[in-house]
Write a structure and sequence with these properties.
Layout lengths: L11 H18 L5 H17 L3 H21 L7 E5 L9 H15 L3 E4 L5 H9 L4 E6 L17 E4 L2 H11 L2 E4 L4 H15 L8 E4 L6 H14 L13 E3 L2 H11 L3 E7 L2 E6 L5 H10 L4 E9 L13 E7 L4 H13 L22 H9 L1
Parallel strand pairs: 1-2, 1-5, 2-3, 3-4, 5-6, 6-7
Antiparallel strand pairs: 8-9, 9-11, 10-11
Length: 377
C-alpha cells in the first residue's frame, strides 16, 4: 500500500502499521469502499497525537466523529427516500396558525412519500412531526439547557439523534435533506435559512428547493423577503438570479408544488472533471437542448450544453437516468436554478418521483403513516 501514501505521517514504522491495520480490517469486514480515506483519517488522528493537540480539542473531534457516525448509521436505511427539513420556532403553540401550517405541510409531504426531518423539539418541530407521523419522521436534536426536550412524536424513536454541537447537527441536516421548509422562528430559524441559502449559492451543497411558509395571510416571511430585496438585492449584495433560490408563500399546496416541481424531471447532479453532469428522469429532445443553449449560454465557460451518457466516476450512479452536461462556470448558481426550472418546465404533466439515491437505486417501502395517508386520498 506504500505507493498510495500521498498523505502520511512520514514515520515508516507507523505508516506501515496503519497500512497493515487497514488491510487487516478489510480481511475482517470485507472490502472497504473508502479504504484510502480510512487510512488518511488514521494518519490525521495519530498526527494530532504527535503534535500534542490539546485534550479539549481531541474531545471536540472525538464527539463529532461519534455523532456523525451514529447519524450516518441511522439515515443509511432510508437513503432511497426523499426528505424535507422543517425549521421553525420551538415556542410556537398548538393554537397558533403557524402550527397548523407546519402540520398540514408535513402531512402533505408524507402523502407524497417524503419523510420529514426536524430538530426533534417542540413548537413547529412537533407540529411537523405530528403531520408526518412517527414512521416518516427524523429528529435531529441538540442538547440545550432549555426548550429542546424531544417532542412526544419522536421521543424514544431510533430515528431520534442527539447532538452536542450545532455544526455537526447542521452537517446532518444539509447532507440528508432534499428540500428545506422554514416556518416563522427566532435566531436559530434565520440562521438555518441563511446558512442553507449560503451553501446553495456558493455551490457547497447540492441544489435543492427552499420554501419559506407564512401563516395564512401572514407577513413574517414576506417582510423578510422585502428586507432581502430592499437591502441585499438593491445594494447589489446578491444578484437578480439569487432571488430564484427560494420561494415565499402562505399556502401549503404552493410550498408542496415548489418542492415536487423541482424534482419533476431534475434528479441530481455532480461534477465529473470540469463538467457538471445533471441527471434527469426524462431525456430532453434536441430542440429542448438547443433552447437551453440559447437561453443559458451565459452559464458556460466554453462549449455547449449537450446530452451525455454516464461517464467516469458517476457512471454507476443511477445508471438508468438521462443526462445533460456542460462546462458550468461554477459561479452562476441562481441561473443554474433557473435552468433546472426550465428543464422541469418542459414537462407539462407531473411524473412519478424517483428515489433519492445518487448511488445505487434502492427500493424502499413508504413509511406506514405515509401509506395510510396515501390510501385515504
Amino acid at each position: 500500500m506504500t505507493e498510495r501514501r500521498r498523505y502520511a505521517l512520514r514515520e515508516p514504522a507507523l505508516d506501515d502499521a496503519i497500512d497493515a491495520l487497514v488491510a487487516q480490517a478489510e480481511e475482517h469486514f470485507g472490502e472497504i469502499e473508502g479504504s484510502e480515506l480510512v487510512r488518511q483519517m488514521l494518519v490525521s488522528v495519530l498526527g494530532m497525537a504527535r503534535e500534542g493537540v490539546r485534550v479539549g480539542d481531541l474531545k471536540l473531534l472525538n464527539s463529532t466523529i461519534k455523532e456523525l457516525r451514529h447519524a450516518f448509521r441511522v439515515f443509511e436505511p432510508y437513503r432511497g427516500v426523499r426528505k424535507v427539513a422543517a425549521f421553525g420556532s420551538a415556542r410556537t403553540r398548538e393554537d397558533d396558525p403557524e402550527w397548523g401550517q407546519a402540520e398540514a405541510f408535513a402531512a402533505r409531504m408524507s402523502q407524497e412519500g417524503w419523510m420529514t426531518i426536524t430538530g426533534g423539539g417542540g413548537g413547529i418541530m412537533e407540529a411537523a412531526q405530528r403531520g408526518a407521523g412517527r414512521d416518516a419522521s427524523f429528529g435531529v436534536n441538540i442538547h440545550l439547557p432549555f426548550e429542546q426536550q424531544p417532542n412526544p412524536i419522536i421521543a424514544g424513536d431510533p430515528k431520534l439523534i442527539n447532538f452536542r454541537y450545532f455544526f455537526s447537527r447542521k452537517v446532518t441536516f444539509v447532507k440528508e435533506s432534499h428540500a428545506i421548509a422554514l416556518f416563522p422562528g427566532g435566531f436559530g430559524t434565520h440562521d438555518e435559512g441563511f446558512e442553507s441559502l449560503t451553501l446553495i449559492q456558493t455551490g457547497k451543497s447540492e441544489m435543492l428547493p427552499v420554501v419559506f411558509i407564512d401563516a395564512p395571510g401572514g407577513s413574517y416571511w414576506r417582510d423578510w423577503e422585502e428586507y432581502v430585496r430592499s437591502h441585499l438585492h438593491r445594494k447589489h449584495m446578491i444578484g437578480d438570479a439569487d432571488l430564484s433560490l427560494f420561494r415565499v408563500t402562505d399556502r401549503v399546496e404552493e410550498a408542496v408544488e415548489e418542492i415536487l416541481g423541482f424534482y419533476r424531471n431534475y434528479h441530481s447532479s455532480r461534477y465529473v472533471g470540469d463538467k457538471l453532469v445533471i441527471r434527469l428522469c426524462h431525456a430532453l429532445s434536441e430542440e429542448q437542448i438547443d433552447t437551453l443553449n440559447v437561453e443559458f449560454a451565459d452559464l458556460l465557460r466554453r462549449g455547449r450544453i449537450e446530452a451525455s451518457r454516464p461517464v467516469g466516476p458517476e457512471a454507476d450512479e443511477v445508471p438508468g437516468l438521462a443526462r445533460i452536461a456542460m462546462h458550468f462556470d461554477r459561479r452562476s448558481i441562481g441561473r443554474l436554478r433557473q435552468l433546472i426550472d426550465r428543464v422541469n418546465g418542459f414537462l407539462v404533466e407531473p411524473v412519478t418521483q424517483p428515489d433519492a439515491s445518487d448511488r445505487e437505486i434502492v427500493e424502499l417501502p413508504l413509511p406506514a403513516d405515509a401509506r395510510r395517508r396515501r390510501d385515504e386520498l
